[in-house]
Model the fold of this input.
Amino acid sequence: MRQTTNTQVATTERDIPIEGLHLRILAEGVRISPHMMDVLVPRDSALKSPADLAGKKVAVAVLNNIQSLTLNAILDARHAGRPVYRQILFPQMGPALQRGQVDAVHAVEPFDTAIQGELGARVLLDAGSGPANGLPASGYITTAAFVKKNPKAAAGFRRAVEAASELADRDPAAVRTELPEYTKVTSDQARSIHLPAYPPTADPAALRRLVRLMRAQGLLTKDIDPAPLLVK
Done:
């Protein structure tokens, strides 16, 4: 079982086969919230509005993934042109922006806040706004074979994730306290970064929003109904 973001798949009526694996959704991970990711530019950049991104080089950590998917959706909603994406890992985004290798970076927390603080970068666009807001950004999946063989383990994993998400949603301060214990986020960063949203349960309606965006942008070739894929 692992946490994952979006990937291009073909579909049957009730399964998502990837290289022979029929997948099941155990639980959602996080959903996009305001400013949990931003499009950043140098303080003195000539880019002044999201419309200025048309044709410009924007760094994303992975091509054809949640970052470009959501940014395209935001720009499309504003009737603005799309940028050209360059793959640069999050830790290298700040230096790439500083050296002028890209015009902007699409940074996710905690790199978002760090780049702003260290370089004085300016937020050009809240990448968690508009059609991106509330969109599922990650999740936990496994195979149909695993669920069939280990139904109690699969259901127990789902309940554990949902219980943790419910706690995180109810008490964000607890998340900020725990972050330095399990990640490289410092206590100061943990207090200031923008946290994602933590859904207490997987929502087929929210997942369908993701499917529609992926279909519209060519990341899926067929429609998927996520409801039958959810582990009960």
